[in-house]
Amino acid sequence: MFIVFGYLFSNFITLLFGCSPVAKYWKPDIPGHCIETIKADYGYGSLNFITDLIMFVLPLPMVWKLQLSLKQKIGISLVFMAGSVNWAVAIIRFVCVVRDLTNTDRTWLAANTFLWSVIEVNTGLICGCVPILNSFSSHVLPKDVIDRSWRRLKTKSSWSRTSSHTEHKHQLDHKNFIELERGNSNSEENLVKSEGGEFASERAVSGVPNAFL
Predict the structure, then answer these.
(1) How far apart are CA 164 and CA 64, in angstroms?
(2) Residue 151 domain-assigned?
(3) Is 94 exposed, middle or buried (0-12, 13-18, 19+ CB in 10 A)?
(4) 137 and 177, same structural domain?
(5) 47, 67, 111: which is closest to 103 by C-alpha?
(6) How many domains does one find in the chain?
(7) Is residue 160 within 8 Å of 109, Cβ to Cβ?
(8) Residue span of the signal peptide, if any (predicted)?
(9) What are the tens digits of pLDDT across the range 183-208?
(10) Residue numbers of the domain that contains 183
(11) In Å, what is the CA distance from 160 to each residue of 97, 156, 165?
(12) Residue 69 falls within a domain, yes or no?
């Protein structure tokens, strides 16, 4: 927090007193002098998205050291990683700033930079509100509705896995046997040899051929 406050304050001082008179900042032809504002803008812009990166990455190792379930750790990590959206916007804004630095009419091209600055501020506010969405949803949506939806999803997933496993097992059971002879009488027995070398008995029933008893 102190790092962010320090570079924002120094950025404000640079913009306010970087040129004398101040109008020379957007009118370079008038008499006066300015500091090297391009280097200052490079420094402040890079610090902006670097601090955003640090703020959402720094807590992640500490989260995974907590005595929580895997589900809770993943959920908390995703909350912090929501800050990556704001970080991406900060990078886009920095690219716009760099593009405009070498242009003589910077105020004319600054519209895109100002637009991305507004987007950055608003995405930062949205990312800051993400941690309370769980409490908000619990008040808006009844708990039994959420529980029913979660149970329905788990049941559907479990049924799909069980069905797939049963079908696979059924295919394997029939795959390991090779029929050698098919009988037609009541008392005739057929031998069925498995791939493992063992023999099993198969008895043909009148009117129902190939039935296993």
Answers:
(1) 34
(2) no
(3) buried
(4) no
(5) 111
(6) 2
(7) no
(8) none
(9) 544 444 444 444 444 444 444 444 44
(10) 171-213
(11) 52, 6, 9
(12) yes
